[in-house]
Amino acid sequence: MTTTHALILIIVAALATFATRVTPFLFLSRHSAHPLILHMGRYLPAIVMTVLVAVSLSAMTLPVFEVSTDDLPTAWQHWLMSAKGAGMLISAICVAGLHLWRRNALLSIAVGTGIYMAWVQIGTPAVVG
After folding, report:
1. Cβ–Cβ contacts within 10 Å for residue 105, how many?
2. Is 37 within 8 Å of 28 (Cβ atoms)?
3. Cα separations (Å) of 48 from 69, 95, 100, 125?
4. Where does the sequence pass through the membrane (predicted)?
5. Which of the four pLDDT bands, split at 50, 70 and 90, describes residue 126?
6. Residues 6+ apart with CB under 8 A from 78
7. Helix ranges (DSSP H) in the chain
C-alpha cells in the first residue's frame, strides 16, 4: 500500500465516522422533545455503563492455584498484577462507583480507562520480570 492509498483510506474512514456521528443530530433536531428521545437520553448512559462493566468482568480471569502451597503467593501476585485479574476488577468497580456517584458517562469511562491502562503499564512488567 502506498502513502497515497493510506491517506485516502484514512480520509474515507474519517468522513464515514463523522457522517455517522452527525446524521442523528441533523435528522432528529426537530424531534428533540419527543418522549422516546428524552427517555433514551435519560436511561441509555446507565445501560451502556452496565454493559461495559459486565463485558469487562466477563473477560476477567480468576487466580489459578496449583496443588503446591509454594505456588500460592505467586498465583495471587500474578492475579493481582495481571490486566485481566485485579486490574480489571478494580477498574470496573471504579467505573460503576463513579458513574453512580457523579452520573457522568464521559468521566466514568475516562477514569476507568485511565486506571486500567495504568494497571496494565505498571503491573505487567512485575509479572514478567
Report:
1. 17
2. yes
3. 42, 11, 13, 32
4. 6-28, 40-59, 79-98, 105-122
5. very low
6. 63, 85, 127
7. 3-28, 35-58, 72-81, 86-102, 105-128
Q: Identify which of 24, 94, 28 has the alpha carbon closest to the alpha carbon of residue 56.
A: 94
What's the pLDDT score for residue 103? 83
H or E stretch at 61: none
CB 90 within 8 A of CB 44: no
Cα distance between residue 116 and residue 72, in whole Å: 25
Q: Which residue has the cell 486490574?
A: 87
Over the stretch 32-55, which tens digit does the pLDDT of each residue have? 788 888 888 888 877 877 887 787
Residues in the chain: 129
Grid coordinates representing 17 are: 465516522
Q: What is the pTM of this model?
A: 0.55
- Residue 105 has which C-alpha cell? 458517562
Query: What average pLDDT score do residues 78-88 get?
Result: 73
55 near 92, Cβ under 8 Å? no
Residue 129 has pLDDT above 50, yes or no: no
